Each structure stands twice: as structure tokens, then as C-alpha cells.
Amino acid sequence: MKIAVLGASAGIGLQCVRLALQKGHEVVALSRRVVPLPDHAQLIRVQGSATDARAVRSAVEGAEAVLVTLGVKSPLPTTVFSDSSRILLQVLNEIGSLPTLIVLTGFGTGDSWSYNSFPMRLLFSLLLKQVYADKRVQEQLIAAGYPRWEMVRPGRLTNGSMTGRYRVLDALVEGMKVGAIARADVAQFLVAQAEHPTYLGKYPALTY
Fold first, then answer.
1. pLDDT over 70 at 126, yes or no
2. Which of 39, 42, 137 is nearest to 5 (CA)?
3. How many CB atoms lie within 10 A of CB 76?
4. Dist CA 66 CA 60 (whole Å)
């Protein structure tokens, strides 16, 4: 199948590209920087921003699934998540395409905020509040404006190896514990959901 990855040059996005190629998929990688991968017959590189409609169109046209794995390194206020979502929805509407959208946000986004542990709520309040505020808008835009989506909310990300042994929590329950998970395992889940989406319209949280 053809999978587009938005935000493909590093982190979970880059790992999704690698894994999808290993599994034999055709992959279109959109990133502002050159994707640090060797040439591959099944890899198409699109260099550009997820807020540039022309670049997004080049990446998603013909895709059966779109993995949105955008990230920021700064805790300062941002609109990259909401702006890119508006552009993506506009482009998909214009080309009349309905790929599955698998959107990476994070546990603590939206209504999951109050289910986080006190230390994590404190951390978010001090360092990540503005970033997660825009992720909340991202989730709202896509949920309200598109019929085929999953919002994936991993816990604290680590650089551990892929294990395939993690929990998927698709409901918010008092006392739930969402802790660490390796980026490699998050990438595995995203690619698996692109292949066979089983959480459409849901907000699965990932943790060990």
C-alpha cells in the first residue's frame, strides 16, 4: 500500500518510514529536511513544510494512509499542529481523497489531561502547556472535519528498542496509568494501524 508520512525526517516519523519500507510498502516522506535514508525504490521524498499546501498535496495524493508525526523541539507557543491540520484537510477535500489519518499527539492532549499523573500534569503546566494546547486544536479540527481518523496518544517517549509488548488503552478510566513507551514501539503501532485500522474514531493511548 502507499503510505504518506508527514514529519518524516526524525524521531517516530523516520522510524515509521523505515518500518513501512521494510514491510514492502510504498512510502512518501514529507519533511523540511532531507530524510536521512539511503535511496530506496519504494521511497519518494518530498522536501517541504506540512503547512505548504503544494508540498502536502504532493505527499498525500494517492496515499491509502497518512501518518501525521509532526513534532516541535521548543516549548514556546506554536500553531504548527493546527495550521498543518487545516492544510491537510483542505488538500484532501480538494483532491477528493479519503485515506486513513493516523495522527500522533500525546497522552495529556484534550480530555486525557486530567487522567495524567500529577508529576506529568506539573511538567506539562511548566514546559509543554502551549504545545499541547495546539495539539488539542489539531485533534478537534480533524475529529470534526474528517471521517477516517485515529488520534494516537503515547505516554512519555523513550529511545528504547522495539518490543511489540505494550498496552493500548482506548478508553479514559479513573486511575489509569500511562507511562513510558519507546518511539520504536509507537512507530510499530502507527504502521500497523495504517495497514489495518482498528481504532477508527478513537484516541488510543500507548504505554508499557
1. no
2. 42
3. 8
4. 7
Buried b / exposed e over 87-96, threshold 16 CB at 10 Å, is: bbbebbeeee
- AA letter at 44: I
Annotate 13-37 with DSSP letters as a single string.
HHHHHHHHHHTT-EEEEEESS---S
Q: Check: pTM over 0.85? Answer yes or no.
A: yes
pLDDT in tens, 44-57: 999 999 999 999 99
| Grid coordinates given for 62 | 494517492
66 vs 102: CA distance, rounded Å: 6
d(CA 108, CA 22): 32
Q: Please give the C-alpha separations between residue 97 and each of 60, 65, 201, in angstroms, as whole numbers.
A: 9, 10, 18
Q: Could you tell me where the DSSP H helices lie in the chain?
A: 11-22, 53-60, 80-95, 118-123, 129-145, 183-195
Mean pLDDT of the chain: 94
